[in-house]
Design a protein that fits this description.
Mean pLDDT: 86
Helix content: 40-55%
Radius of gyration: 30 Å
Number of helices: 14
Low-confidence stretches: none
Strand order of the largest sheet: 1-2
Order of helices and strands: EEHHHHHHHHHHHHHH
Shape: elongated
Number of domains: 2
């Protein structure tokens, strides 16, 4: 006898219920083999490249003209970083969502002066070069308007030069900008520029924000990304350097950038972010949404897994 449902009753006979043999080990082995084969096949067919990180030295060695043009743009204040806005500077209002300027709410929390932090301060370390010292002195002694005129003129001239080659730039009044930009390229090619940009940001020198901003202001990084189908209007997915499996989960996030109105919106970043927040909240609330919470029962997919007795 045993206690059942709060009272005494007969012990059920286990042989009174239908049974069937079930080999749990066999099922596990079959499932493991099938999933292993599918994983290997999927990795071979749909694998994504795991490229090493692009360094400033690699950039300078493969696209030196782009480094010079980027340095001139930083001095002119015409790069993305120079006019990005919060959290780096007050160059623009930034992303807005309706009446809210969300990018300005936290303010400038990571101040970056593109000309000073990304170009002038690193170049000032070349104290043994008389030409560079003289060029920096001329720059410091000029008015902001004069500096802007020099840098803008040189940046425009580089854009019109054959292949952007600094050696083929037309004669003009560029002041000390060509010397400063050329020294920036030399620092990058030697490998010193990356260390100068990271070591100045923190005691441990592990903050790569400024180095990444400088690299992103050029065209080399974008060209490398588009070559791997990673452009904003492309659908490529790449593993994070040194990590596995990367970020394939980002497909849903990047999907919205390909469809209107996000594809043509200047505030697509914050709009997609807001949409993903709403979708995430909706996903969490599925158990409380009538119709959706009972959808699995009506679809009957569970019957394919929990099959009846044979």
């Amino acid at each position: 006898m045993s206690v059942r449902n709060g009272g005494w009753g007969p012990t059920p006979d286990p042989h009174a219920f239908p049974t069937r043999r079930y080999d749990l080990v066999r099922e596990f082995v079959v499932a493991l083999v099938v999933m292993t084969v599918l994983s290997v096949v999927a990795a071979l067919v749909f694998s994504s490249p795991d490229e090493p990180a692009i360094s400033l030295q690699q950039w300078a060695r493969q696209a030196p003209a782009d480094v010079v043009a980027t340095a001139a743009g930083e001095l002119a204040g015409t790069t993305t970083t120079g006019g990005y806005g919060p959290p780096y500077n007050a160059g623009s209002e930034g992303q807005v969502l309706g009446p809210l300027s969300l990018q300005k709410l936290p303010g400038v929390t990571e101040p970056v002066d593109a000309a000073k932090d990304l170009v002038l301060d690193p170049v000032r370390t070349a104290t043994g070069d008389a030409a560079v010292t003289a060029a920096l002195g001329a720059w410091d002694g000029a008015t902001p308007d004069r500096q802007q005129a020099w840098a803008s003129a040189y940046s425009d001239a580089l854009g019109q030069a054959p292949e952007g080659d600094p050696a083929k730039v037309a004669t003009g009044d560029y002041g000390p900008v060509p010397v400063i930009a050329a020294e920036e390229e030399k620092l990058a090619e030697s490998g010193a520029l990356e260390g100068l940009l990271t070591s100045r940001t923190s005691f441990f020198g592990v903050d790569s924000t400024r180095a990444l901003l400088l690299l992103a202001d050029g065209t080399y990084l974008e060209d490398a990304a588009r070559a791997q189908n990673l452009g904003g209007d492309q659908w490529g997915i790449m593993n994070e350097t040194g990590n596995y499996p990367g970020q394939p989960w980002l497909w849903l996030y990047s999907f919205w950038y390909q469809v209107p109105p996000f594809a043509t919106s200047e505030n697509a970043d914050v709009q997609v972010w807001a949409l993903m927040i709403l979708l995430s909240i909706g996903f969490v609330c599925i158990p409380w949404i009538p119709g959706l919470r009972t959808l699995p029962r009506h679809l009957g997919v569970h019957r394919l897994v929990w099959r009846g007795q044979r």
